[in-house]
Design goal:
Blueprint lengths: L5 E7 L5 E2 L15 E7 H7 L6 H10 L10 H7 L8 E6 L5 H7 L1 H4 L3 E5 L4 H10 L7 E4 L4 H11 L3 E5 L16 H18 L2 E7 L18 E6 L6 E9 L7 E7 L2 E4 L3 H6 L9 E8 L2 E13 L7 E4 L3 H15 L6 E7 L11 H13 L7 E3 L2 E2 L5 E2 L4 H10 L4 E5 L14 E5 L2 H8 L1
Parallel strand pairs: 4-8, 4-9, 5-6, 5-7, 7-8, 15-16, 17-20, 20-21
Antiparallel strand pairs: 1-2, 1-3, 9-10, 10-11, 11-12, 13-14, 14-16, 18-19
Bound molecules: thymidine-5'-diphosphate and magnesium ion.
C-alpha cells in the first residue's frame, strides 16, 4: 500500500467497530446514529491494526513465572486486579466525571514504589501536585506531564522509562496520524493502539483513564475494552460517599470482582466490611424493610430494601423505584395484585435500595416483593430474617447463583434465618450452616410463613 494513502472508514462511537460503508444503525451493536467518518492514514493502520499481537508473549512469560505483579498496597484494588498490576499490562479505568478516577490513580502510586509518569491534560501541574500532596504521596516517585500529544508522550516514556504510565484521560490525548479531534472514536482507538504497542514492547504498565458519558457525546471508553487487558469501572452515586470499583474484564485474573471505598478528605478509603456499612443505619421494627444478600463479584453484600405502600389520595398513583429497575417494580405490583389478591392499583408505591446502591441482579426480587407486601399489610418482616430469590410472573421463586456464599455472609452478620428458593436446596448442604435455611417455591409460601 502506498505510504501516503488515506482511507475513509466509519467508526461506531459505541462499540468501536469499523465499517467500510455508512449505516444509520451500527451493524455490530445495533445502536442508531453512532457511525461517523474517519480518515485513516493507512501506514499507521497497518502498524496498529488488530488485537495486541504480543499478548501471547505475556502469557508465555507468565507460565515461566518470571513476572511478579506489582502490588498497589491497597488490598481492595489488588483484589479487583487479581493480585496487582502486571508489567506490560494495560488497564482501562472508566467512570463518570468526578467519581474519583484521578484520585484512585494517584493513590496507588506510593504502594507500587516505582517510577510513574502521570500524564494529565485535564488538570494543571500545580493542581496535580497539590492533590498528590494532600493525599500524602511522595512526590519523588511521580513525574507529572500535561502533554496531550501521543507521540510526545511516547517520547517522554522512552526518556523517563517509568514502570507505570497513567493517562488521564484518553479523551484529551490526540495522535497526529488521525485527522479528528481528541476524544473522537478514531483518536481514542489510534492512541489506544499506540500505547498498547509501547506497553507490550517495553513492559511498561499503562492505566488509561476514560470518562463515561451517558449521552455518548465524547466517545466512551467502550471501544478500548477490546484492546486492554483489564477493564475497571469506578461507580458511585454523587449523593453518597461510597464508590464501587468493578472489574469487567481481566485477562490475568478473575472478573466481576468489586472493591468498595468511601470518599473522604484523605481520598478513597477502603471499606473492608461493606455489609456493615450498608446495614449501619437500618431502622428496626418497621414494616417495609427487608434485607437480601446481593453478590457483587465474588463478594456478598447484605443490602436493605425499603418499600412504602400507601393510599393514593390525589389522581394517578405514584410509582418510584430507586436502585431497582422500574419495570421490575411494575411486575412485582402485578404479581401481588394478580397472584396474591392484594389491591395495588390505587396505591402510591416507593422502593429504595439503602445507600444509593444499584442492583440489576434479579436475586433482589423476593426481598423487594416481600418488603412491598410488608408495607401494604403493615406487618414487620422479622429483624433476623434475610430473603433471596428471583420472582417469576406466576409468583414462583426461582433459584439464584452462589447461594452458599450468600448464606455464609448472612450467617456471619448474625442473622438467624434465610429464606431461599426451594430449587436451590437440591445442591445445597444445610448441615454446613448454623443459620436456619428455609426453602420456598412461591411468593405465597413466603407470605404464609412471615405474615
Ligand atoms: P476526581 O478523582 O477528580 O474524579 P475524576 O477523576 O473521576 O473526575 O475526584 C472528584 C471528587 O472527589 C471531587 O469532587 C472531590 C472529591 N475528593 C474528595 O472528596 N477527597 C479527596 O481527597 C479528593 C482528592 C477528592
Ligand atoms: Mg480526573
Amino acid at each position: 500500500m502506498a505510504k501516503s494513502k488515506v482511507r475513509i472508514v466509519f467508526l461506531c462511537s459505541s462499540c468501536g467497530n469499523e465499517f467500510a460503508k455508512w449505516n444509520g444503525q451500527c451493524p455490530s451493536c445495533s445502536e442508531w446514529g453512532t457511525l461517523s467518518e474517519y480518515k485513516v492514514n493507512t501506514k499507521s493502520r497497518t502498524r496498529s491494526n488488530g488485537r495486541p499481537r504480543s499478548t501471547t508473549k505475556m502469557v508465555d512469560l507468565l507460565k515461566k513465572g518470571k513476572i511478579n505483579r506489582n502490588n498497589t498496597g491497597i488490598p481492595e484494588v489488588d483484589r479487583v486486579l487479581g493480585g496487582g498490576i502486571l508489567p506490560g499490562s494495560m488497564i482501562l479505568l472508566g467512570g463518570s466525571p468526578g467519581v474519583g478516577k484521578s484520585t484512585l490513580a494517584l493513590q496507588i502510586i506510593p504502594g507500587l514504589n516505582s517510577k510513574v509518569l502521570y500524564v494529565s491534560a485535564e488538570e494543571s501541574e500545580d493542581q496535580l501536585a497539590l492533590r498528590a500532596k494532600r493525599l500524602g504521596i511522595d512526590s519523588n516517585l511521580i513525574h507529572l506531564s500535561t502533554e496531550n500529544n501521543a507521540q510526545v508522550i511516547l517520547d517522554q516514556v522512552a526518556l523517563l522509562k517509568p514502570k507505570l504510565l497513567i493517562l488521564d484521560s484518553i479523551q484529551t490525548i490526540y495522535s497526529d496520524n488521525i485527522d479528528s479531534i481528541p476524544g473522537s472514536p478514531g483518536q481514542i482507538r489510534e492512541c489506544g493502539q499506540q500505547f498498547l504497542t509501547m506497553s507490550k514492547q517495553n513492559g511498561v504498565s499503562v492505566i488509561v483513564i476514560g470518562h463515561v458519558t451517558k449521552e455518548g457525546i465524547i466517545a466512551g471508553p467502550k471501544m478500548l475494552e477490546h484492546m486492554v487487558d483489564t477493564v475497571l469501572y469506578l461507580e458511585g452515586d454523587p449523593r453518597f460517599d461510597h464508590r464501587v470499583l468493578r472489574s469487567e474484564k481481566n485477562r490475568f485474573g478473575t472478573t466481576n470482582e468489586v472493591g468498595i471505598f468511601q470518599m473522604s478528605k484523605q481520598g478513597l478509603e477502603e471499606v473492608s466490611n461493606p455489609s456493615e456499612l450498608f446495614l449501619a443505619e437500618r431502622t428496626k421494627e418497621v414494616p417495609g424493610s427487608a434485607v437480601f444478600p446481593a453478590l457483587e463479584g465474588t463478594r456478598p453484600i447484605l443490602v436493605e430494601v425499603q418499600a412504602l405502600v400507601s393510599n393514593a389520595n390525589f389522581g394517578t398513583p405514584q410509582r418510584n423505584a430507586n436502585g431497582i429497575d422500574y419495570k421490575r417494580l411494575s411486575m412485582f405490583l402485578a404479581v401481588l395484585e394478580k397472584r396474591l389478591g392484594m389491591v395495588m392499583g390505587t396505591k402510591d408505591v416507593f422502593v429504595n435500595l439503602v445507600g444509593g446502591l444499584r442492583i440489576s441482579d434479579p436475586t433482589a426480587d423476593l426481598a423487594v416483593i416481600t418488603a412491598l407486601a410488608s408495607s401494604a399489610k403493615d406487618i414487620i418482616i422479622p429483624q433476623d430474617t434475610v430473603l433471596v430469590g428471583e420472582v417469576g410472573l406466576v409468583g414462583e421463586v426461582r433459584s439464584v447463583a452462589k447461594l452458599d456464599k450468600r448464606v455464609a455472609e448472612t450467617e456471619a452478620l448474625g442473622f438467624k434465618q434465610i429464606i431461599v428458593p426451594q430449587s436451590n436446596l437440591k445442591r445445597f448442604k444445610k448441615s454446613n450452616t448454623k443459620i436456619k435455611v428455609i426453602g420456598v417455591s412461591s411468593v405465597k409460601e413466603v407470605f404464609s410463613n412471615l405474615f
